[in-house]
Amino acid sequence: MREGAVVAADQMTVQGVYLPFNFSFSFSYSLSSRTFWPSYSGRACVNLRGTGSSDPTWWGREIRVEMWNAYGVDTKVGPTVRYSVNGTYYGYCWTGLYPYHEHYFRLTKDWGGSNSVWGDGWASS
After folding, report:
1. What's the half-sphere exposure (Cβ side, CA atoms, 13 Å) at 65?
2. For residue 122, how many other CB atoms are within 10 A of its CB?
3. 46, 52, 43: which is closest to 64 by C-alpha?
């Protein structure tokens, strides 16, 4: 697996990394990122852009991003954020994360069944 790739559900997971890291993504339903550890500030930011889709009406659609604490039983942390799939970078920072606990973010979409969406971005503290 290359550096910066987001982990797909059917791929082998990778050991957690520290922020920042770059990523690219392609998924049909949902996709979880590599795991990472927020710093003592308990903050993590995700900037991403959706650059394409196999759905012919993808322009103006949105994908959702959720932040998860992977320590013990996975628990969702903070709000679900919507990102427009229009080729523009958008960012959001989650605060109140558990410092030095493994976390990951999950990308999901709610349209078009198995149609894929792809793009790139980065995660930082």
Report:
1. 23
2. 16
3. 46
Each residue's pLDDT tens digit, 1-55: 233 444 444 343 445 677 788 889 898 889 999 898 887 888 899 999 887 766 6
CA angle, 42 as apex, 81 and 91 as ends, to 5°?
Answer: 30
The model scores a pTM over 0.85: no
Tokens 């990102």, located at residue? 83
Tell me the C-alpha distance between 124 and 114, whole Å.
30
Report CA 18 to chain centroid distance, whole Å. Answer: 15
User: Quick one: tokens of 14?
Assistant: 């990778």
CA 56 to chain centre: 23
- Which are the contacts of 49, defined by CB distance < 8 A and separation ≥ 6? 83, 87, 88, 89, 90, 119, 120, 121
Half-sphere exposure of 64 (CA within 13 A, CB side): 11
